[in-house]
Amino acid sequence: MSKKAIFYHAGCPVCVAAEDSVARALDSSRYDVEIVHLGTDKARIPEAEAVGVKSIPALVLEGAPFHINFGAHLSDLK
Questions:
Q1: What dotted CATH number matches 3-77?
Q2: How far apart are CA 54 and CA 76, in angstroms?
């Protein structure tokens, strides 16, 4: 059974690079990866905040947020 992973980003160059190198590197037999573009899907910002995402890009594995590099504060997307 795969575990849930959510990669939140906003399409900036830092985010795209992180998606290509981090989110896509996860073993698909272990993780069901969902890519969420918060720049175009702002309704999901409260969801990201609720799990502790403070900046993007961020990868949430099994409910725990991991911030990757720095693209923008989540508050900048509101």
A1: 3.40.30.10
A2: 10
